[in-house]
Each structure stands twice: as structure tokens, then as C-alpha cells.
Amino acid sequence: MNGPRPILKTGLALTILGLGLAVVALVLTGFGQFSAFAAEHAGAAGEAAAAGLYGPAPKLTAADYPAIAGVNGRIVVWIVAQLHLWFAAFVLAVPIFVFIIEVIGMRTRDKRYDDMAYEFIKVSITAYSLTAVLGGFLVFALILFYPHLFTYLSTIFSESMFYYALLFFAESAALYIYYYGWHWLQGGFKKWVHLTLGLVLNAVGTTLMLLANAWLTFMMSPAGVDAAGVFGGDAWAAIHNFLWNPINIHRFVANIAYGGSIVGAYAAFKFLTATGRQERAHYDWMGYNANFIAICALLPLPFAGYYLAAEIYAYSQQMGITLMGGIFAWLFIIQAVLIGTLFLSANYYLWCGMGRSDGAKRYTKYIKYIAIVLVGAFLVWFTPHTLVLTNEELKALGGPHHKILGPLGIMPAKNTAVNVMIIFTAISFMFYRRANKIATVPWVKAGNAIQVALYTAGIANIVFLGIYHGYFTNTVYKVAASIPQVLTTLVVIAGSITLDSFIYRGSKEVGSLQWGRIPERAQYALFLLAVAFTWLMGLMGYIRSGIRQHWHVVDIMRDASPDAFTPTLGYAANVVSVAAIIFMAMVIFVFWIAQVSSNKTLPAGYWKE
Amino acid sequence: MRIPKLLQAVLVLAGVYFGFIVVFDVILDAVIPSSLLVMYMFFVTAGVFMVFTYDEEGTRELVAPIKALVEDPSKRVWRNIVFVIVPLAAGAGTYVQMQPSFEAPLELRTIHPAPPSTAKIYGKRVNLLKLENPFRKLEKEDPEQFRELVEEGAAVYIENCQYCHGDKLDGNGPYAAGLNPTPLNFQDVGTIAQLQESYLFWRIATGGPGLPKEAAPWISSMPVWQNFLKEDEIWKTILFLYDYTGHSPRSWGHE
What we know:
The complex is a heterodimer. Chain A has helices spanning about 5-45, 45-50, 75-110, 110-145, 145-155, 160-180, 190-220, 235-240, 245-275, 275-300, 300-315, 315-325, 330-355, 360-365, 365-380, 390-395, 410-435, 445-470, 475-480, 480-505, 520-545, 570-595, and strands at about 435-440, 510, 550-555, 555-560. By secondary structure, chain A is mostly helical. Chain A has a domain at about 360-510. Chain A is globular, with a radius of gyration of 26 Å. Chain B folds into 2 domains: about 5-100, no CATH class; about 120-245, Cytochrome c-like domain (Cytochrome Bc1 Complex, Chain D, domain 2), CATH 1.10.760. Chain B is about 50% helix and about 5% strand. By secondary structure, chain B is mainly α. In chain B, about 30% of the residues are buried. At the A-B interface, α12, α13, α15, α16 and α19 of A face α2 of B.
């Protein structure tokens, strides 16, 4: 009996490993060929153009956009693309942190981490199918409603679209083996095989995202084509366009934050429906971890967003002003409000979570001061550049300029505010971590004094940089000052965490953490986090796409459809909100289906005895 | 005597609300726009309730008076009074909000309409993404000549622009009061300090009629200055605008 099993085990392990390596090989060789192809064609780009292999971008008329069954093609594409993106963001993010949690589980040998990682990936399985279904729907919608645009883009990106389809197979294979093999590939070498599969899954998923990002950024900042849109044959140039990397970075970080918030909502949903104490404790712990992931990714996100916006501005003054000074500026106010909401709900969740420890009382007295600073910074963060004034207010001010609020409307004030919000969120987190510990090192007072000095100096530096460079130097320094501000924030947070780890080395615990001892209100903060993220991504996605205005491909291929207009803010917000509601309904379905498999009915008398 | 939590919350909110009005409207003499005050108060309220409800004890204390009002039989009279007053107050508030008035509707006007990537100026098609002020390089190469050009720009400004934009470039010229929206204040850090010179050139040369239709409706009484000024005169005026206000044009290269 025992004879063949090790062989079987080894064989299967090797099969899995081989499959994993095959996927890696596919990715690598695929891209090797692809870059070889690109390099070869780059040299022959001129020849390709001269030989007339590629035509110019078509000049369309309204008749080139099929009217199908009275359906508004733009809204269909808009909503389907948005739904696809939400699900894709989720299913790309979950394997990233599942991988990390699995590593933590392997290092600490704490099975709870492994179980949590499995539960996270279980939630993403149905979402994965929905992503693929919506992706297919999106392609059909584009072919049906925008056939010429799709033809033009697929001419330029033919190879990458082909590889994209192939990679989807690799992604599915890696995901299904990773998920269904979870309990089988446990312990020793097998666990390492499983972890490798997770790595392959993430590599393929990220590559898929990078490819799709290239297509949409090409539409914003076309490259590899001439002024008439004639493709030169260099596929890499078209992929590696001006805005590709800024979008890649922004989406990669945002996806993790988003994935964290969605599984946080799942944990909250399970917590609220849990019946037993143990179950509540488990989902409280899971919600805490999901929120932790979301916050960790949320903290650098404003910087990635600022980098993207600065690059858009650098690419085109017109796009930059449309984005932040023109018609879309008002959506940025909504964006600011939603980002502030994210920070407030994340902090509120941490404060509520301090109730898990009996030692929290020592720190809760500071919460009101953190709240004052957070709300104050938040108010600066969303103060608009152009104020909405009644005629009376206009008369009282003598014009639309407001001497106090006006300067708060521009980026230096916003950057300062968001850095302060991030630092105070880090302080909330520090108090949370300290709540259950008592330091035993003799220099604890000195250590705390250094912490205070570190935060004070950091905040002073951020405020100084914001005011001096923001208002008394030219725009080059104004924009550049955001970098030392960010670095200050990062140094303060990293320094504080390091110092705290020394202060609390060998510390005593006040008592064991009471998982599950958290008000139900806190779970709604987790829901709010997920909803705010979803809505925010929808609105910002619309802005990113909308700044192309009446262009399919900026300055190259004009949108001649009857829907080429820039919709009013209310109209756009309604479409995004409807899409967000559809998404939420689908997510509730995903949550429900994830728990259906564990439900069992005993049909008494149904089956033959 | 310890103030009940609910009263504390109400006092904090009232304090912040009147604090904003006193600081802005009275002390700083710069009214706080009501639209903004509503947004500010919404999030201040959220912040206050976050602080009062993060633990069970605080929450219980906060909602205790409300719970008692609704559930305590001895508070029947008060309950009835509140249950009549609250809907009436909500109704009155709605009535006041919805009442027709002679006030012109609010406009979501933004200060900088986005420029087109190219524009026809002085009969030539100009790429606004690449256009530069031909005199800017003299600031370093020949400061003396640069000063002369700034002076010439100042003369053009005083002859043509100050009637609306003001002799201090603060948007408060003699005709400014007759215009709605009022002319732009160049001293404000949010106007020309944020823009490239090519943007100013386009706005000055093509004026209100040159605003892009994609960003409509734009209202601007700015004349089409390419019909009245020479190209050089516009560039010199732009030098003067930055020189006088002390702002630098938006650029991407370090000095």
C-alpha cells in the first residue's frame, strides 16, 4: 500500500512543478519572442510603413457606428468595461496578498494564516469567472459598437492581444491548481510547490494587467504611430507609451488596496452573520488583516496617483488642465471626499478595534486629537480651487477669488494635507499595536520622546515644504516638493515602526487579545471602505478615459459617434453609480456562493436506503 | 457637573459651525461660501460621531437620551413634542430650500478652461504643447534687454488690459465690477502661476470666442487680442504679467 504513494506524490509534485515551469517558460519565451519580434520590427518600422502594411487611422462618420436594437453603445461599453475592471482588480489583487499570507503562514507555522489565505482565494474564484465573462462581453461590445476602433487597435496590438489570450489559459491553469490543490499540496516540498504556483499565478496575472494597460494608455498617449496614425511596426514602442508605467504603478498598488477592502467587506459580512463566538473571532481577525492590507496599500496610493496626474500634465497641458482645472475638476472634489472617507473609515475601524485589548485605555484619550487633525486635513484636501458662490457671496468677496480658501485649492495644500492624514493614520495604527503591550526596556521614556520628536520634525518639514515650495517658488519646485514630502512621510513611518520594535522588544502583554470584541458599527466601516473604493475607482476611471474627450486615440483617431460629447457631471456620476450598484449586487452573489458549498441538506427519505 | 455626551456633541458642532462664520465672515472679512460650509460641516459631524462612538461605553452614553426619549414611558409628553417638532422642522427646511427665488442659479465655472492642442493664431496653426515665449531666454542671456521688453509689455498692459484686470493685476480694474465673472486676478497663486506661457498666449490672442466648444459653456468677455495687438506685444505683456506678480510660468525643466 505504501509503496506507490511516494512515487505518486513525487510524480504529481513534479507534474505540478513542470506545469508551473511551463507557464513561466510560456511567459518568458512568449515575451522573448515578442521582444525579439518588436526589436526586429523596430528596425523595419520605416520599411513597414513605407511598404504600406499599415494604413492611417480611419476618419469616421456617425454612420460608422452601428445602431443595435436601440441600445446606447457607449453606456454598454462604459458599464461593462467598468465591471470588468472592478472584478479584474479584485482577482489580480487577491492572489498577491494570498501569496504573502501563505508565506507568513509558512514562516510562523501558524495554520490560521493558511486557512485565511485559502478563504480569500475561495472568494476570488467566482469573481475570476465573472471577470472572464465580463471581459468577453466587453470584447463583443467593442466589436459590435466600435468596430473601426477595435480593428485599428487590434492591428497595432495584434501580437499582444494574441499573447493575452494565451496567458489567460496560463492564468486559469495556475489559479485552479493553486485553489483546488490547496489542501493536497500541504507540508514540506509540496507546500513549496504550492507557493511556486502562487508566484506563477501572480506573474501571469500582473503581465495580463500590463498588457491591457498598454492598450488603454495608447489611446491616451499614442506612440509608435505617425501623426496620421500609421503604425510604424514597432509594437514595443506602442506598448511602452508615455503613460504606460504611471498607470501600471497606480493600478498595481490600487488593486491591492481594493482587493483588501473587498475581502474586508466579506469578513464583515461573515462577522455580522456569524452565530458562534469562535466564528465571530475568526472573521474579526480576518477583517482586521484585510483592513491592514487595504491600509498598507492605501498609504502610498496618493503618491502613485499624483505621479500619474503629473505625468498626464507633462504629456499634455491640455489633458492636464482638462483633468484638474477644467470640466473634470469637480469630479476631483468628489474623489477627494471619497479618499478622505477611506482614511476616516480606516481610522475608525482601528479605533473600534482597540476595544479588543484591555490596555487600550492608555491610548484612547489621544483619539480625539487624531480626529481633529484628520478632519482638518480632510477639509483642506477637498476644498475646491473654484468655489461655488452665490451672487451675494460673490459681491461680498468682490470677485470669485477667496484670499484664504483660494490658496487651499491648489496642489501644494492638498499634498501637505494628504501627507498629514497618512502620518496620523500611522499614529492610529501605532497606538493600536501598542494597546496590548507594556514596554519593559529601561529607556522607554527616552524612546517615546524620540518618537514625539520624529513625528513633530516630520510634520514640520511637510508643512514647511508645502508652504514654502508651494507658494513661493515656481511650478517646477512646486511639483518637485511633493517628493521630499513623501520621503519625509515614509521616513517618519519607517523610523517610528523600527523604533517601536526596539521599545517593545521583550514587552509584556496586557492580556490576550479578545478577537470578536468589536462593535458591529466597525464592520460597517469595512463596508464603507469597499463601497467608497468601488465608487472612487468608477469615477476616476471615467475621468481617466473622459479626458480624451472627443478622441478615440488622442489627436489621431477622432470619435465621430453621436456619443462623442463629454457628459455632464450628473450624468457621468449616475452611470458610474448604477455600475457600482450592479457590481455590489454581483459581489454579494460572490460572497453568497462562496459559502453555499459548505451548506448541507439531509434529504430524509429521498434516497433509497 | 458633567455635560451629557449628546449635548457635548451638539455643542462641539455648534461651536465649529459658528467658529467658521466668526473666523471667516467677521475676523478675516472673507465670507465662507455656504456650499463649502455645508460640506465642511458634514465631515466635521462625521468626525465628531466617530470620536463619540468608537467604544461601546461612549456610544451607550451618547444614545441614552435618545433611547430614553423613545422608550421611557415617563417621557411621553416630551416624546410627543419632539415627534411633532422634528417633522415640522424638516418640512420647514425643505420648504425654504425649494422656495423659488430671484437668485441666479449657481454656476460651476472653472478658472482654467483646457486649451486645444493646436490653435490658429495670427493665421498660423500653432502647437500649444510646444509653443514657447521667444523672449523668455533673454531673462538669462541678456537681462538688460529683457528688462526693456518687460517695460514695453507693461506699457501694452496699461494701455489695454488694466481697465479690467487692474493696475495691480489683481482683477480689480475700473470696469471689473461690471463683469460677471469678474476678470482674473493674476496675483492669485491659482491662476497664471499654474500655467505655461503658451496657455496665456492662446487665451490672450483668441479671447472669449477662442474658448473650446468641448468645454462649453464658457462665458468670457475677453477680447480677441490678435485683432488689436501684434504677436510680439502679447509675448512682452506675458513677460510683464509674470515679472510684476513675481510668479514664474509653469515649466518642466529646472533652472
